[in-house]
Amino acid sequence: MANKIRIGIDLGGTKIEIIALDEQGAVLFNQRVNTPRGEYQGTLQAIGELIAQAETQLQQPASIGVGMPGSFSPGSGKVRNANSTWLNGQAFDKDLQNHLGREVRFANDANCLALSEAVDGAGAGCHSVFAIIIGTGVGGGLAFNGKVHHGLNGLGGEWGHNPLPWLEKQAYPGPDCYCGKQGCIETFISGTGFTQDYLRHTGKALTGEEIMAAFDDGEPEARECFARYQKRLAHAIASVANILDPDVFILGGGMSNITHLYDHLPGLIETVIFGGEFKTPIRPAKHGDASGVRGAAWLW
User: Fold this and answer.
1) What is the pLDDT of residues 54-88, one digit of tens each?
2) How many CB atoms lie within 10 A of CB 3?
3) Per-residue pLDDT tens for 175-190?
4) Considering only Cβ atoms within 10 Å of each terminal Cβ, which end of the chain, N or C, has fewer?
5) What pLDDT, on a 0 to 100 scale, did the predictor assign at position 146?
């Protein structure tokens, strides 16, 4: 009997990545292609072609898991809240399964990050893992005992569109968010929120990398901006710890690669968390950018 092979698909707004893992998690196949932006049928076709290429090379069929933006509405069964907007309102799960002629499992991309790191990453051996994506936007994912927690409404771990807690008076009510509200966590602690905060305070439009270079050079404005960012991220994490108190927090996305980020977070969290104690480890994703696609494979 052939070893079980798991294929994962990470469907992003700019690229589609496929990975094939053996039973021990070793990579057997990996490839990326550009996402056919705005083309729903083209997206189905691109995924099908990647799977066909992988299985041809592997010379055997595999299970298929897909990590995707947004989630499926429990009412309509269609995609909602996806920043890849051409997926919204589509029965993506049914359409892809019909296109491939087999069962496929689906999860939000942040939940795939949580699953990947819970299975064999920075959260391996932990009962509860809360994964945080801090990139262009903000996402969150939950895994319990190595399994994704989707939630009754498909919103498990979705914290980015809650209001930022303990917001300083001068920042209230916060920036407008695309979701229609103000002051969402995403508007402050995403990479976009970081650069927009610097722009608001200095009038200078810099990338995150440029701001951190200025930080390393000792620029006061950059240091103040990063201090605000760390404080706000700490407040957001503390609010999750007060409710869920997971065994570990895992950070992914572009902002998670800033090593300075981990220096003062625990102490800042203790200033606002209930009881004033915080012992939970905060770790970068062990598998980095590959965590999402690996987690999609581990859906089986």
Assistant:
1) 999 999 999 999 999 889 999 999 999 888 889 99
2) 9
3) 999 888 999 999 999 9
4) N
5) 94
**pLDDT tens-place string over residues 91-117:** 999 999 999 999 999 999 999 999 999
Nearest to 54 by CA among 99, 112, 9, 97: 9
pLDDT of residue 82: 87
What is the predicted pLDDT for the residue at 1?
Answer: 38
The answer to whether 232 and 160 have CB atoms below 8 angstroms apart is: no
- Sorted by sequence, the CB contacts under 8 Å of residue 174 that are 6+ apart come out as 163, 164, 167, 182, 183, 184, 187, 188
Task: Indicate the pTM of the whole model.
Answer: 0.91
Residues 3/23, Cβ–Cβ less than 8 Å: yes
Q: Are 285 and 251 in contact (CB under 8 A)?
A: yes
Q: Is 151 exposed, middle or buried (0-12, 13-18, 19+ CB in 10 A)?
A: middle
Q: Which of 125, 119, 187, 136 is nearest to 159 (CA)?
A: 187
* CB half-sphere exposure, 33, CA atoms < 13 A: 16
Interatomic CA distance for residues 123 and 129, integer angstroms: 6
Taking phi over 0 as left and psi of -120 to 50 as alpha, with beta for the rest, 288 belongs to left
Residue 167 CB contacts under 8 Å (≥ 6 apart), including other chains: 174, 183, 235
What's the rounded Cα separation, in Å, for the pair 157 and 240?
A: 9
